[in-house]
Specification:
Elements: H1 21-29, H2 40-53, E1 56-57, H3 67-76, H4 94-105, E2 109-114, E3 117-122, H5 124-131, H6 135-148, H7 164-173, E4 180-181, H8 185-194, H9 196-204, E5 208-213, E6 222-228, H10 230-240, H11 257-261, H12 273-282, E7 305-312, E8 315-322, H13 327-337, E9 346-351, E10 357-361, E11 386-391, E12 397-407, E13 417-422
Amino acid sequence: MFNLFNLFPTEIQQEKAPLSESSKQLLSKQVFTTNQPNTIVQDFETFIEFLQLHKVEVSANQNAIAPKYLADINERLSHPTKIDFQRPSQKSYPYIHGLYLLLRSSAIAQVQLDKKKNILRIDPQILQLWQELNDTEKYFNLLATWIFYAHEGIMDNASRSLNDWWYIFNFWNNLPAKGLNFTSSKDEDWLRQLRLHNVALLYLFGFIEVKDAEPLAGKGWRITEAKPLPFGTALMHLLHATDWQRGMFLEYEEELEEERLLGVDVVVQQSTPTEILQEEFQALDLFPEWEKNLQLPEAESKDGVFIFKVSLKTAWRKIAIPSNLTLYDFSSAILKAFNFDNDHLHQFTYKDRQGCKQRITHPYSQDPPSTDEVLIRDWQIGIGDRITYVFDFGDWWEFNVVLESIEEPDPKFKKAKVVDKKGKASEQYPDYDEE
């Protein structure tokens, strides 16, 4: 049988170990409220409330929260971060940064364009589904979101080669029962590898106790001690005793298609990662109050005429295309608008509503989904979303694409056309000998 664990280095693979009776008893007696075993649910909902009350701007590229809101959010949290930066950024506040990643990867908070500004807004439909969960369900849905989805690749395309939880497990396995005192450069290396927002989340979820001190001049959050708590130790034991890791491999199903075609026995799970975590925990008769999960509703198709602004270097074209055409049609329209021959492969990359990077490729690439299969109306993007279109993987022509608006359907509008333009298009095959 194909070994899914070959996808990761052996030194960080986690061996299953039986759950001790003492850990099971501790976990079974744990009461979950908005502030037990710690304040993760309380602070998550405090953040939601702030976004409902304020039109919070975020940056165009990374969608980071604008600095002018950070101090206010920080003071509302149960554990404000003490820093001494003159120009703090979102990452300067590890609690804010960790909660932000949970909000984005849960899809409760999404970035939308509002009068040329990117705003971090709460999705009311998904929020309602969240509010229908009990406190136990909220805790474990947030835990599953952190384990399977929340990573800094949401903010940029240079995501880590491994899910953060492999680093967290590595940190935990080297965390002594008496804790760590971060007074030496060796101990500080652990913080750099783990990243401070993960330390903050370990604390908010009740895994560890954290002590901090006043920041040094011009410095950030100053952790002096991190110590494992009994609940955190028991929950880590539970994770070691289960096959929760199989939820990690759902994203690799397409990569395993070749193995299936060769007749290799590959088991593909039908459950979501969150459901897998729930199944594994409840197989040990734990957390019966955890019944429901935050299920994202199916995204609706959008009919109409889509207006895209497509830029290449200093030139741009605005292309209008009816929603019943495909992304392959859109690709052809882009190439025609910039006087390129349609003689190479292409791909579109974009972020879905959970902030995960997605890719739709040329039909010949044999990497589904392909651009001739996806209609514009079914493309899960929103107004203001930034998309990268790459044409010719050798010369790597990279176009920046932004969905500017969706106009009302027009039955007379049958094909894509350029409605505005600026700048001279680059030559696809410049005569280098004459330069």
